[in-house]
Amino acid sequence: MVQTMPVNLESLTNLAKRRGFVYPSQELYGGLGAVYDFGPLGTMLKNNIRAAFIKRFVQEREDVVLVDTAVLTRQDVLRASGHEQSFSDPLVECTVCHQRFRADEKVPEAKDHEHKLAEAKQFNLMFATHVGATKEAGSLAYLRPETAQGMFVNFKQVLDTTRIKVPFGIAQVGKSFRNEITTGEFLFRVREFEIAELEYFVKPGTQDKVFTYWIEQWEQFFIDYGIKKENLKRHVHPKETLSHYSKGTTDLLFQFPMGLKELAGVANRGDYDLAQHEKATGTTLQFFDEQEKKAYRPFVIEPTFGLERAFLAFLTEAYKEYPYGRGSDAAVGIPTSPSGERRNEEQEIVLHLDPRLAPYKVAVFPLVKKEKLPEIAQKLVQELRKQWFVQYDESGSIGRRYRRADEIGTPWCITVDFDTQKDEAVTIRDRDTMKQERVKLNKVSDWIAKKLER
Ligand SMILES: [Zn+2]
């Protein structure tokens, strides 16, 4: 049995960069601190995580609707929500080198001097900008630091334009921005990121039960998509560390390469946000309960996770290094390629991603570049591409092509060989078990669809 080695953050970062999952943003110009771009494969993986969230929590449910609200947010919205006053971290600045640090975290030592830290002050994490051509006082706006306020300010509109009733949720996936003081650890803490979350509105008095329900739902989502249960841990926030809007928060921690850290969270926001927006605008933000013949302001349970952190968690869980030879041609019973090519890698990387999250579902290889095998393979590729992202690869030995596909998490590789013309069938090889199956050409797409069904 082959031994796998534990993953470190550097290996993940290297693979992500080398295979086009993630690049430091604007690297051509030296990069922008803690801002990343997603490359071709990363964009596909991130899209699949987003789609999994929407499928599970919107499409498959009766009680949740999806919105997509603006990033640019009026100053008074974020004043009413409390962010303008309280969305900050304590900051200390060194009077010698002028580097800034979070006062509530350990300050790293400098090489050439001892930091002389000034008194801590509160630093607001929101990015401010101006809307319109003139820079008047009234035009100040912020890039939203969370997507939640977009749901709260549309609470009335959603109630008025749909037939949804409490309890119900408004879901959103979208960009958010925080000018973090300390960053690093790859995608873990970034300044521009995507949040996937729900504001779930409930009748006051029922919030504790719903809160527990959503923690379980959140945990199950990650487990169903490949995170091992033993790598997740719940963390109940003590009162003194709660956000200004929260009556209670439970985080879901994950065993990242750099330690056990926050992956997702569920907060009980009470009726704080709706009450604040009611007060600021004079508009009643309540739900009229037809059965009880009375109106009330719902309480809100907010399950949330960062897409980049989920991306990092799924990569961490999926990444395995095997000693040289796991996928060798001989080991998988494939004849050595005519070129007799040998590989010289030290180890083999496999991303054991859930097939639903994998960027490419299938890779198709003609065994050789002759005898019409490429034509048959291309025809199959064209057919499968109507449903999924499919890669075509005809260069190098089959073993090498398997390894290229394994490294980016492609669950199935299909080989068109000399027998294909006779038996109208191809060999499908499984990334994880390396088992091979002979499948009729006209059954391939059903075979894949069935595998992806969950
Ligand atoms: Zn210093």
SSE map:
Layout: H1 9-18, E1 22-24, E2 36-38, H2 40-59, E3 64-66, E4 72-74, H3 75-80, H4 83-86, E5 88-93, E6 100-102, E7 121-124, E8 127-130, E9 140-143, H5 148-152, H6 155-161, E10 168-177, E11 192-202, H7 207-224, E12 232-236, E13 248-256, E14 259-270, H8 272-281, E15 287-289, E16 294-296, E17 299-306, H9 307-318, E18 319-323, E19 347-351, E20 362-366, H10 373-384, E21 390-392, H11 398-407, E22 412-416, H12 420-423, E23 425-430, E24 436-440, H13 444-452
Parallel strand pairs: 3-10, 20-21, 20-22
Antiparallel strand pairs: 1-2, 4-9, 5-6, 5-7, 8-9, 10-11, 11-17, 12-13, 13-14, 14-17, 15-16, 18-19, 22-23, 23-24
Helix pairs in contact: 2-9
The structure holds zinc ion (ZN).
